[in-house]
Amino acid sequence: MKRFSFSGVMLVAGMLFIYLPMLILVIYSFNASRLVTVWGGWSLHWYAGLLDNRQLMSAVGRSLEIACYTAIAATALGTLAAFVLTRIPRFRGRTLFGGMVTAPLVMPEVITGLSLLLLFVAMAQLIGWPAERGLLTIWIAHTTFCTAYVAIVVSARLRELDLSIEEAAMDLGARPWKVFLLITIPMIAPSLAAGAMMSFALSLDDLVLASFVSGPGATTLPMEIFSAVRLGVKPEINAVASLILLVVSLFTFLAWYFTRRAEEHRKRAIIQAMEETVKGS
After folding, report:
1. Which CDD domains match (predicted)?
2. Which of 133, 108, 267, 271 is closest to 213 using CA atoms?
3. Which domains can be identified in the chain, with CATH numbers?
C-alpha cells in the first residue's frame, strides 16, 4: 500500500485551499436562487443578467482597458530599467536607482496610493494637470507599481544570457539596435511575456491604489465588487468572476501551448544543426 508523504499531503491541502473556493464560486454562479448561500437549482439567469447590468460591465471594461495599457507600459519601462541595472555595472547613483526601482515591491500600497494622490493634487494646483482623476491617473499608478515586478523578472533573465552571442553578432557587422531586436529580445521573450502577464494580473486585481487615485466615473471592477460586497454578495458578481477565471485560464493555456511549441521547434532546430555539422565534418 502506497503511503502518502507529508509533503504530498501538504501540497494537496494547499492546492485545495487555493482552488476549492474558486470551484465553489463557479458552481454558485449557476445558482437559480437570488440568495448566494441558498442553492436553488441550476440556471444561466445571472450570466444573461450581466448584459443588463451596465454598471458592472462598464467596470469590467475599464479594468481590462487599464490592465492592457499597464502591461504594455510596465513591460517597456521595466525592460529598460533591467537593462540599465544589468548592462551598466557602474554609474553615478546606481544604488539609488536600483533602490527606487525595487521600492514599490516592499512599499505598502496604502503609502504608495496616498503619495500618488498628493502628487496628483499638487500637480493639478501647480500646472493644472491632471485636471481630474480618472483612468489616466489609475494607469500611471498601476504602471509605477508593476514596473518593479517586470524589472526584477527581466533582470534575472538578462543575467543568465551569454553575451558572446551578442558580441559575435556585432563582430559580424550587426548594428546594436539590430542585435537588440533580433537576438536579445527573442532570448528574453519568455521573461517579457511573464512580466506582461504579471502586470496585467496585478493591475486587474488592484483595489488600494485605484481607490486613492480614481475619480467619479472611473470605478474599476475590484472597487465595484468591494462596494457591492459590503451590502451582500450578488449573484452577478459570481458570474462575472467565473467569466474572468475562464478567460484567464484559456489565455494561460494558450500561452503555455505556444511556448511549448516554440521550445520544441528550437530544440529540433538545434538537433538538426548539430546533425548537419556532424555530417559536414
Report:
1. TM_PBP2
2. 133
3. 55-280 (1.10.3720.10)
* Position 167, amino acid: E
In order of 25, 48, 228, the CA distances from 35 in angstroms are: 13, 17, 14
Compute how many other C-beta atoms are within 10 angstroms of the C-beta atom of residue 149.
20
Per-residue pLDDT for the chain (281 aa), expressed as one digit of tens each? 456 688 888 988 999 998 998 898 888 888 888 777 778 888 888 888 887 888 888 998 999 999 999 999 999 999 999 999 998 888 888 889 999 998 998 889 999 999 999 999 999 999 998 888 989 999 999 999 999 999 999 999 898 888 888 888 888 888 888 888 888 888 888 899 889 989 999 999 899 999 999 988 889 999 988 888 777 777 888 888 888 888 888 888 887 888 788 778 877 877 887 777 777 66
